[in-house]
Every structure is written in structure tokens, then in C-alpha cells.
Amino acid sequence: MTDQQALAKPHPIQLISVNVKELYIKPNVSPDISVGVAEGNVCSISVGHSEYNTENHTIVTFIKLEIGEEGKESNTPFNLKIELVATFEVDETRFAVEHLTDFARWNAPFIMMPYLREHAFSLSSKCGFKPIILPLTEVPTNKPV
């Protein structure tokens, strides 16, 4: 098998949809393209997943970004919430179901990050603020030390 053939082989788990559950932004100051979210502001990313659906061979995952704290005095120029939900289809003949929780917990969030990154950039810039650019992150590997 050539390198090109190896790259073209589909993974046994495929992303079949990414949907927006929530897109929310509320300015705390007047919009200004030079104003953005500073380091140290309240920002969190959370992830989670459903149980595996054995009938349709899918698992649903979510990723949520929150900046600022609603209802509290904030030092962020805006409060923002973005929640995305993704559905993955599993080929059980090529992927052991007992490892699916690990996939949903570790791999799925990295697959969903570009979608989250795009929504954060787009929403913040469309509201007149300096666009949010979420940092790239390192993907952990299981290499022997």
C-alpha cells in the first residue's frame, strides 16, 4: 500500500453532521474592532458525549465555548456562548465499540475544534469586535516514552 492509498482509506468512524445548538453574544461595551477578549478573562471549553446508539450506529458529541459570565459583572467586552453538536457514525466491523468512549472523549473534540473556531471568529467579528482566534492545541499521542 502506498502512502497515498493509506491517506485515502476512510476511518471507521465518520462525522455525519455538525449542528449549532447555541450561538449567543451580548456586548458589555460598545462594539469596537480594536477591542477583544484579553488573556485571563473567564473562558471555558467543555465537551461531552451521549451513549452509543446501537440501532443506528451513532454517537453524539458536543463542544461548548463560554466567554464571560452571564448575570455577573464582567471584565470581558462581551459574553459569548457557542455550543455545537456532532454526530458520528461507527463501522463496528472496523472499530471496537469498547473503545468508542475514548474516541468520543479524546478524538471528537479535536475534530470539532475547527467548527468551533470558525463560529467564534465569525460571531465576534460580525458583532464589531476584534475577532476571536482560538489557539491551536497539541493533540496528545500515546507514544512510548
Descriptive labels:
145 residues, alpha+beta, single chain, 2 helices, four-stranded antiparallel beta sheet, Bacterial Protein-export protein SecB
Description:
The protein has 145 residues and is α+β, with helices and mostly antiparallel strands. Helices cover 23% and strands 31% of the residues. The chain has one domain (10-126): Roll (Bacterial Protein-export protein SecB), CATH 3.10.420.10. A hairpin with an 8-residue loop joins β2 (43-49) and β3 (58-67). The radius of gyration is 18 Å and the shape is elongated.
Q: Indicate the overall shape.
A: elongated
CATH H-level homologous superfamily name: SecB-like
Number of strands: 4
Strand order of the largest sheet: 1-4-3-2
Report the CATH C-level class. Answer: Alpha Beta
Percent of sequence in beta strands: 25-35%
Structural class: alpha+beta
- Please estimate the helix content: 10-25%
- Cα(first) to Cα(last) distance is 29 Å
CATH fold title: Bacterial Protein-export protein SecB
The biggest beta sheet is recorded as: 4 strands, antiparallel
Which second-level CATH architecture applies?
Roll
Mean pLDDT rating: 91
- Enumerate the spans where pLDDT stays under 50 for 5 or more consecutive residues: none
Rounded to an integer, what's the Rg over CA atoms? 18 Å
Could you give the order of the helices and strands? Answer: HEEEEH
Task: Count up the helices.
Answer: 2
